[in-house]
Structure formats: structure tokens, C-alpha cells
Amino acid sequence: MKILVSDKLSAKGLEILQKERAGLEVAVKTGLTPAELVKEMPPYQGLIVRSSTKVTAEIIAAADNLKIIGRAGIGVDNINLEAATMRGIIVMNAPEGNAITTAEHTISLMLALSRKIPQATSSIKGKKWEKGKFMGVEVFNKTLGIIGLGRIGRLVAQRAQGLGMVTIAYDPYISSDMAQSLGAPLVGFDELLARSDYITVHTPKTNETAYLLGKKEFEKMKKGVRIINCARGGIIDEKALYEAMVSGKVAGAALDVFEQEPPGDNPLIELDAVICTPHLGAATEEAQDNVAIEIAQQMISFFKHGEVKNAVNLPSMNAELYARMGPYITLAEKLGGLEAQLLEGGLKEVKINYYGEIAELETRYLTASLLKGLLEHFIKERINLVNSAIIAKERGIKVTETILSQTENYSSLIRLEAITDKETGSVAGTLYGRRDARLVEINNIPLEAILSGHMLVFYNQDMPGVIGKIGTILGNNKINIAGMNLGRKTIGGMATALVSVDAEIPESVLAEIRAWPIILYAKKIKL
Fold this sequence. Notes:
The chain is α/β, with parallel strands linked by helices. The protein has 17 helices and 21 strands.
């Protein structure tokens, strides 16, 4: 088997791959252009990358023999997952290797920011001695607000507590009991903004977290707050941060990531109170060794034993079982993803009922897929079918399965009920033609719809004119409707609709829909 390593990989990882007993032929060719990589790919069965190589749909299309892509690190946003999955190519990552390193970098930046270490270093190197210019602040007894209590956020909390800091957290998808046990009690988002002396971000970059900290949020913070971001660029509105710093509201910022990398002529980096690093969160010798060793061992296990570990687009099962369960796995994940986007609040409990023929299958894969769909919208770590149940348990989310022989008018049915600290919601789905994933119920209201693409879900009091009004609003904003599915229990009672559209609905259009008094609830969904 031939493996191409297209980014710089630790020597320890390469040594494992190149051992004779591994039985692999390894080529290391770094710095290839996209066009060169397209020409290079056809002979290889495996590809190992870090963050430099962008594995595009064109590269995947040219990889005639490629079976697996290994990412030496956590994030796989440089890999076209959809294209890889469509080609039957497994994508795996190495999620454990750099969590400690990123947490340590966060603490390092916080301390350097507090004591103005980079500025003082630059001053001395400039042959100056400006002792009075670099007055700092202590972190002891200060409040650190942590946005996102995933693997890295928890490590940051532990280390900050060791410095004598008070830690609080905002994470709507972790139980309050779990957060309390970590010494970082959950608070509301606005409360975190108002109380924190320091705010650090540890969430994934999603539609929900884009510009999570913007102009309105900075206005709610206490004067003199300091901001740290070692997560992803674009979670913080850089223009709003600049304005908040110029006004004096924000006393300093430490940034390892930017919306555009390299940041170029970004005015933020010209401010004296901003310190920054070039995306070094995972840049330690230990982390690079760890992720390289991890991905090398996973590659060998796959090619020698057919074992799949830390896959982000495939469960750990043999090909025969996957062929039978694949459509149900897709259905379960889509149901979880839909419910995740409909819910408000922190997830506390998940109840799953399997009805009919599906109950004869190995439901743990289906549960893992459903949890993946639920959790991956909110958690920085890449969720897959291997780790979704473990992460749910770590976050104190109770998961129960019930297998029932009755079919409820379908040969097979999956019903999901999710309970948060604010509400309870449910969805149910089945397969049409043994292949097509279909929604058949939302919150006990019958409704049939294809689970795919951009959608609008809304509730209203059943009355004439609602559909026409929604269609008019979408049409006026040049949003084309691909399909509309309606459901209700009784005439004049609660009604719901799922509208499939050809493009994402802007927030301004969603606000216009919500402003109509007859609309009780409206959300946009992407599956």
C-alpha cells in the first residue's frame, strides 16, 4: 500500500510508518501546489496531511485509488469531507494529541497579555529601559469566562484555577452538574460577558458561533476586559474588537487565530495592547510528535487489520454490515442534526426509540450516529461515531435506548426526544425505499419531508394566508422555495411547516418572518 505524506510530519510518525513490518510504501512530498497534487495522487491508497495541504474536491476526484485520508491533528476543515464521503474515502483525525498544548498556549497568552511581556521584550531589544511603561495586572482572584467547556476548555479551566482564578463558563450543551464538577459553573452568556475580567473562546467555528463576540457583546462587557482566542478566526468580529479596544472598553487582546491568515494589513495587530502569534496553538514538539504517532498508528491499523479509529465520516464496522446499516446511520445523524438546530438550552437527556425491523440491527451504531448529529453542532472537537457516546457521557448527558417491535405504521422508525434545561423536543424519521431519509414527525405533529439542504422550520396558529405570507417574504428576498411540507393535528390548532430553500436564509429575512405576530417560532436549518 502506498501512502503520500504531503505536509511536514514529525520524524517519530514517519519512523512508525516506514518500519518494514508495517508493509507500507511511504512517499514524503511536501510543498506541492494543488495542480501538482492532482497529478501526484492517482497511485496512492493513503494520504496524510496537516493543515497546509487543502484536500479539495478536485484532488479527491483525481485520487483514483485513495481509501483513507489522515489528518495529523484535530481540525479537518482543510479536507472536503463531502467529496471524500461521496467517493467512499474514509477521513480520520488525531484528536487527542494537541489539546494540552493548545490549553497551555491559551494560558501563556493570557499571562503574557497581563504582564505586557512581548512589548517589554521589544522595548529592551530596542536598547530602551522603560520600566514604568509596562505596568501589568495580576490574574490571581480575577474571573476567567470560558466560552466552550470541551476538551480544551476544561484543561484551560484546570490550569486557570491553579493560578487562583475564578472560572465561570458558558456552554449551552453541557449539563450544569458536569460544569460544576469542573469548578467552572455555568452562567448565562450575558452574565459571563458582564462578570469576566478575561474571556477565552473554545468553540468550533459554525454558523451559530460566527461573530459570537461582536459589537453588542463588547458593549455588555466590563471596562478593562481582556480577550484571548486560540480557537478559530471569525468567532470574534475583528472590526468590533478593534473599535472596543480603541474606545478603551477592552484593555487587551491575545490572538492566535484570525479571520484571514496571514492577517495582512489588519489594523488590530497595529494596536500596542494586542499580542498575537501565527496560529501556534498546536505548535510544540510534543504535540507534533503525538499527532504524528497517533495518525501513523491509525493508518497501519487500517491497512493491516481493516480497523477504523477516529473516523469523522464512517463508523467502525466491516463493509458488509455498513452496506446494510448505512442508510439508517444517515437517517439517525440527520435526525440528530435537525433536533440540535431546533433546540434551545443545555442538553441534559436524550431518549431514543427504535421501532420495527430496525430493532434487529446493531443499534449502538445508530445511537452513535444520532449523538454525532446532535453534538457536532456545538462542540469544538470533531465528533464521530467512535467518540460521540463517550463525549455525551463526559458532558453528563443521559442517553437511553428503547427497542420496540411495533412499527407505528412504518416498517422501521427512529424517534428522538431531547431534553434541555429549557425545553423538550422530538423528531421521528424513517426510510423510503430503504434508502431515502425522511422526516415524518416534529414534536408529535405529523409532517413528511426530505432531510437535506437549507430549510426553514416554523410554527404558527393554523389559519389561512400563512403559507402565502411566508412565500412572499422569501420571494421578495429572492430566496427560491424548493419544497414545502405542512403538518397539523387539528383544524385551527398548532401547525408546523418545513420549507426547503435553495440557499441559506439571511438573519435579516429570518427576523422579518419572526416579526409577523402569527409566527410562534422560526428557525433556519442546514443538513
